[in-house]
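Same chain as my last thread, 32 residues:
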Amino acid sequence: MSGLRQGEGSVNWTLSHSIPRKHHSPFDSSMN
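reply #2:
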């Protein structure tokens, strides 16, 4: 289960960083 969860997080992280910085999100700023 841990592996699956990690994989999901990786995908979410990639998607979050793949989206152009057109939409300034507080989450993005906090993550960066």
